[in-house]
Design a protein that fits this description.
Helix content: 40-55%
Structural class: alpha+beta
Number of helices: 7
Order of helices and strands: HHHHHEHHEEEE
Strand content: 5-15%
Shape: globular
Radius of gyration: 17 Å
Number of strands: 5
């Protein structure tokens, strides 16, 4: 399964997607985003608005690209405490032929679609994802992460906010599984904090 709808990380795009797919959440987003922007106007600090937008960007991507039956089964397996996924993109490649030497080796799980999405990223974007995943291994639910109770999935951005990482973990097990990677369309890595 490939992510078929790749949403821009902007207030307009997130609201439009939610209005179409989840009207109640669109209302909550609209209220939270306006409050965050009002606060930003008063404090001259976009940090909270950017964090809130990132959280809702993850939710909108999950609504626009519902989990497949296979992904739902994988979530159930992780929730049941089972190990799922490949240890790394390198091990996935090795199972299919010679491993690429540039793919790092992690002690976490990757599902096939996430690996395919990772390998399709430019090397610079892969490095940003690698950096963020290393941070997640030390703090899976820390700053910059967001949990969607509807799917039990977590989202965060790469280390500069240009790509979305969708993952699942269980607090009682040292296993983090990367479910999807979404690269933001038409966005320069030099301007990750634009507000839309």
């Amino acid at each position: 399964m490939a992510v078929t709808t790749n949403l821009e990380r902007s207030g307009r795009a997130v609201h439009a997607a939610l209005a179409d797919l989840s009207p109640e959440e669109a209302e909550r987003f609209q209220h939270e985003y306006r409050d965050a922007l009002t606060n930003a106007a008063e404090t001259f600090d976009l940090t909270d608005a950017e964090s809130m937008l990132t959280r809702w960007w993850g939710i909108a991507n999950l609504r626009a690209n519902p989990l497949t039956d296979e992904e739902r089964r994988l979530v159930q397996h992780v929730q049941a405490g089972e190990d799922v996924g490949w240890p790394s993109p390198a091990s996935w490649l090795a199972a299919r032929g010679p491993a690429a030497s540039q793919v790092p080796d992690y002690t976490l799980g990757w599902v096939d679609i996430a690996i395919e999405q990772y390998l399709a990223l430019p090397i610079e974007q892969q490095r940003l994802v690698d950096t963020r995943i290393q941070q997640l291994l030390n703090n899976t639910a820390g700053i910059g992460t967001s949990h969607d109770p509807h799917t039990d999935l977590w989202t965060t951005t790469d280390s500069i906010g240009t790509g979305l990482i969708v993952y699942i973990f269980r607090p009682d097990r040292p296993r983090l599984v990367i479910m999807r990677l979404v690269c933001q369309p038409h966005r320069s890595a030099a301007s990750p904090n634009a507000v839309g």
